[in-house]
Design brief:
This protein is α/β, with parallel strands linked by helices and about 375 residues long. It folds into 3 domains: about 15-85, Winged helix-like DNA-binding domain superfamily/Winged helix DNA-binding domain (Arc Repressor Mutant, subunit A, Orthogonal Bundle); about 85-195 and about 365-380, ATPase, nucleotide binding domain (Nucleotidyltransferase, domain 5, 2-Layer Sandwich), CATH 3.30.420.40; about 210-360, ATPase, nucleotide binding domain (Nucleotidyltransferase, domain 5). It is built from 13 helices and 15 strands. It has helices spanning about 15-30, 35-40, 45-55, 120-140, 175-185, 190-205, 265, 270-275, 280-290, 295-320, 330-335, 335-345, 365-380, and strands at about 30, 60-65, 75-80, 85-90, 95-105, 110-115, 140-150, 150-155, 160-165, 185-190, 210-215, 220-225, 230, 320-325, 355-360. The strands form 4 sheets. Strands 6-5-4-7-10 form a 5-stranded mixed sheet. Helix 1 packs across helix 3 (about 45-55) and helix 10 (about 295-320) packs parallel to helix 12 (about 335-345). It binds zinc ion. Zinc ion binds next to helix 7.
Length: about 375
């Protein structure tokens, strides 16, 4: 984030202990005072003072009482007040911005999308600031902004830069700083797959797992990793580069010139290319494959095999509990699930334990919601 203090009337300054109780309630839902005391290690008296302060700030409320097993008086449940703050998340692609407005519990209350008139940084930042300003009319307690996009997030001398965002043609853009200045709100910036991974870990298909990986694919392919309940940042902000693993050394060339790598089969553009249909869109090729056009069918089967190679590598390397496969490319799994399964079996280490692979449905708003969750994580 941009580290200069922001005057943010919509979000109070919190102490570390207040934040940790709030995060506990965010991720796990309601908790009794007794549970919170046990989990935080605070005395009941300290916890009572702390929860009183969160109640006074309007972030938490007291709910029902829960009878305790055995002896002892019943313990009140504390719960989050989801409407006490709102967050705006943006997912930028090369030609559109997807917007999600969430409450504190990450429920999407409103979403919209806009075409990008221009990829010029100032124009895109200006569009995001206009959207925040118009949402503030109905949601005056917007407390932070999150943005995610394909590209690397690097921190240099305390400033955050977007590096190598190929779809937008951006390099070394101090995006968090620019959005923060334009909106007046604290701003979190993340790589889109990293952002979606963290969102699934807290609120989606990864809830309850201490180790998981997420493969997001469509226009590109990337992988995010959670180990021991922590999102792995890598040393340079972008782990999980599975796109250029070799599937077959005699395959088509990817945009970087590798023969037969994962990207040369699995991305939307690769599938269009491999279908051999001049001027087709991705949706056209999906339609052709469904109607049995032989080369389109094969393009999807090979894409599914390439996806399986990426999943198998992740499973072999990390031994995670679950792999979440999602993104705008999911038609690959619908059209060629058998090829995916068969290649996964062949490329997984034979000594490994079967890993659960799940395919939650996908919408671009999911990325925008993930960016909003990044904004929640920034302030909480
Ligand atoms: Zn490649």
């Amino acid at each position: 984030m941009y580290d200069e203090a922001v005057d943010n009337p919509a979000w109070p300054e919190l102490q570390e202990a207040q934040r940790s109780v709030l995060i506990d309630l965010l991720i796990h839902g309601s908790r009794s005072r007794a549970e919170l005391a046990r989990r935080s290690g605070l005395s009941r008296a300290s916890l009572t003072r702390l929860t009183r302060s969160l109640i006074d700030l309007g972030l938490v409320s007291e709910g029902d009482t829960r009878p305790l097993a055995g002896r002892g008086r019943p313990s009140e449940l504390l719960e989050l007040r989801p409407g006490s703050a709102h967050f705006v998340g943006f997912k930028l692609t090369g030609d559109a911005v997807y917007v999600a407005l969430t409450d504190l519990s990450a429920s999407v209350l409103h979403s919209e999308e806009h075409a990008l008139g221009s990829r010029d940084v100032d124009s895109v930042v200006g569009l995001m600031a206009d959207i925040v300003a118009s949402l503030r009319v109905a949601y005056p307690r917007i407390s932070a902004v999150g943005v995610c996009l394909a590209g690397d997030v690097q921190i240099s001398r305390g400033r955050t830069f977007i590096v190598g965002s190929a779809f937008l043609g951006w390099d070394e853009v101090p995006l968090a700083e620019l959005v923060q200045i334009a909106t007046g709100l604290p701003t979190a910036i993340a790589n889109d797959v990293q952002s979606l991974t963290a969102a699934h870990h807290w609120f989606g298909a990864g809830v309850g797992y201490r180790s998981m990986a997420l493969i997001g694919f469509g226009a590109g392919i990337g992988c995010g990793v959670v180990v021991n309940d922590e999102l792995v940042d890598g040393s340079h902000g972008h782990p999980g580069r599975v796109g250029h693993l070799t599937v077959r050394s005699d395959g088509p060339l990817c945009d970087k010139g590798h023969p037969g790598c994962v990207a040369s089969y699995v991305t939307d553009d690769a599938i269009i290319q491999n279908s051999g249909v001049e001027g087709a869109t991705y949706a056209d090729v999906v339609g052709l494959a469904k109607s049995g056009h032989p080369q389109s069918v094969v393009a999807f089967q090979e894409a599914a095999e390439a996806l399986a190679v990426a999943v198998a590598h992740v499973v072999n390397l990390l031994d995670v509990e679950v792999v979440i496969v999602t993104g705008e490319g999911l038609a690959v799994v619908d059209l060629a699930g058998a090829e995916f399964e068969s290649m996964l079996r062949r490329r997984r280490d034979p000594e490994g334990i079967d890993t659960n692979v799940v395919f939650p449905s996908f919408n671009f708003v999911d990325y925008a919601r993930a960016a909003a969750i990044g904004a929640v994580r920034l302030v909480v």
